[in-house]
Amino acid sequence: MAEYHPADEMRCPMHFCVGQEAMPAALAQVLRRDDVLMSHYRSHGYYLAKGAPLDAMVAEFYGKQTGSNSGIAGSMELGSHDYNFYSGAIVAGSLFIPFGAAFAQKYRRLDDMSVSVIGDGVFDEGITYEVFNLVALHHLPMLIICENNKYAAHTSIERRQAQPKLAERARVFGLPSEQLDGNDCELLVRTLERVVPAIRAGKGPHFIEIETYRYCGHVGPGDDEGMGYRDAAEIQRWKARDPIIVMRKRLDGVVDRGELERIEREVEAEVHDAIASAKLAGFADIRKVISSNWSGEYANVVTRFTHSVTPSFGGGQSEARPGPF
Amino acid sequence: MLTRESTVAEKASAGSTRLSFAQSVNVAQRQAMELDPGVFVYGIGADGKAGIFGTTAGLVERFGPQRVFDTPIAEGGLAALAAGAGSAGLRPVLVHQRLDFMLYSIDQIVNWMAPWRFMSGGRAKMPVTIRAIIGKGWGQGPQHTKSLHAWFAHVPGLQVVMPGSPADAKGLLLSSIMSDDPTVFIEGRSLFTMQEDVPDEPYFIRLGEALVRRPGKDVTLVTMGSMVPVSLQAADALSKAGIDAEVVDLRCLMPLDVASIIRSVKKTGRLVVAEPGWRMYGAAAEIIATVVETLHDMRSRPRRVAWPQSAVPTSSKLEEQFYPTSDDIVAACRASVTES
């Protein structure tokens, strides 16, 4: 995408997750289609983690009708209703929508679960603490993953948080918490294989903070080092422990190198096909789009409407006089 | 157990019962919960003995604590719960004893619930109902009285419902709960003791259908919510003075029944809007603008009766002077008729 975005045909703000691929890859191993996953706006990896189709995601970036959201959402609010994947721009939303979804899963006595992936920036917003409390209070089947990449846009965590130990802060709300290396995919899979079945079994919510790092600028494929909020040495340190490099080293000698290269070629071809078909697709009809804000629909129990039931109501009655309650 | 202002229901006629507005709201929720196991009711005091002015009394005994529950004072979190549970297909009913508290949840409502269907490309539903009660009388003051219906009606994706009578409260609340779109259901506290014969069976009023409560030929009086009985009282007084007002109860601000308003004003040629809220940038402004954009041969200038552009004073003497009365509506209608 980084290669194609500069062509200015994908006219939407796009937040790249290059450097933060480990957790989406790990989650893909443990989640089911009926589970709900919602991530922050750095969402592309998580969309794919849920098994949603690549071509619909690329078409969404191009704003086309064939996009997963019919071209309405773009990258920032990317979602796939059929695969129970959502994301959004206003940051704490990716915490609280899955919270409500987890409530619904418990309400229906299902063993599905909800996963929220937030960034460290969500700890800046007040709603977070209401939701932490409610998730713990209702003992919901929810996994909260915080990707601590040290920056909310261009402001470092040290400049935003008096107490930046995020897992500790979640713990005091009654959420069992742990902090992990977010670039070690194998470790993340092992952890999820322990945590996820427990959540499904009704053992309550869990919080995982992972340390990771983004290489691109906050938004867009380029870098934004010129803004002076972080230095090049820091980026290089993190690139040295890139999650894909870490995984490759571990696979060396375990998986045949030719096999890895074959997978890479396949993926690349799939991406190019997706881009080609997205470019060919048409845009949605604006009239149809404008009329899609409301469904105007009702539950099946509504089989008929009554216009007026009784004509008895008049204007002569005195108003209620409320007391203090 | 009902509060002191919710009187014991008495049988009026076969198939209907005389109920207060508060009792009607209560019955609507009970019947919605019977019809759909995904309906649940929550909010501060929802399972308490007083049952939010009687409107939720008895529900927890009937449906249990999973479907009727008390909450922390966390309005943002509560709306978040509704947004997420609604996105997953349940039908949450979130109750605020005063609408003012709901302002902590504007992000959840405006950024998430309202565009949820739109953002999904028309695929997703958000069947959420937020009941918001507006205080009036007995010292409610600046932080217990705000209506803000026009705010919510401004936002694409939201429905805004404002019942003006007990029977409408029941049919409109049942429809709101069963609607697949997010709905702000605004209840004027001053209506809570008013009574009407209410059919016992569940019934649904289509959202966006105004009701002509009193036909008339001289002036169209468009009104909504707690101003409905005040407007009916004004119409009675006008009738004695030989002015025949047609009272159009909007019932919903969004969807707005423009056709019914236009039909009435075409007939009478005159328009007065009585709104239970602030004068500037309100529902009355929208309605008058819509009418004058559509009709060019009105017989007199449209008028509005609304609150002064001021927060509401607590002192009961000042409060009495603050709220427009039926006399104010009578004066506006008279002026509208005598002008032409």
Structural features, described:
The complex is a heterodimer of chains A (325) and B (340). In chain A, α3 crosses α10 and α4 (93-107) runs parallel beside α5 (127-137). Chain A has one domain (5-290): 3-Layer(aba) Sandwich (Rossmann fold). Chain A has 325 residues and is of the alpha/beta class. The mean pLDDT of chain A is 92. In chain A, the strands form 2 sheets. In chain A, strands 2-1-3-4-8-7 form a 6-stranded parallel sheet, sandwiched between helices. Chain A has a two-stranded antiparallel ribbon with strand order 5-6. Chain A has 11 helices and 8 strands. Chain B has 340 residues and is of the alpha/beta class. The model of chain B is unreliable at 1-12 (pLDDT under 50). In chain B, β1 and β2 form a beta hairpin. Chain B folds into 2 domains: 13-199, Thiamin diphosphate (ThDP)-binding fold, Pyr/PP domains (Rossmann fold); 211-339, Rossmann fold. The termini of chain B are far apart. The longest helix of chain B is centred in the first third of the chain and has 15 residues, at 21-35. The chains are: A alpha/beta (325), B alpha/beta (340). The interface between A and B is large, with 70 and 90 residues.
Summarize this structure as a short list of keywords or feature phrases.
heterodimer; A: 325 residues; alpha/beta; 11 helices; B: 340 residues; Rossmann fold; 2 domains; seven-stranded mixed β-sheet; five-stranded mixed β-sheet; 12 helices; disordered N terminus
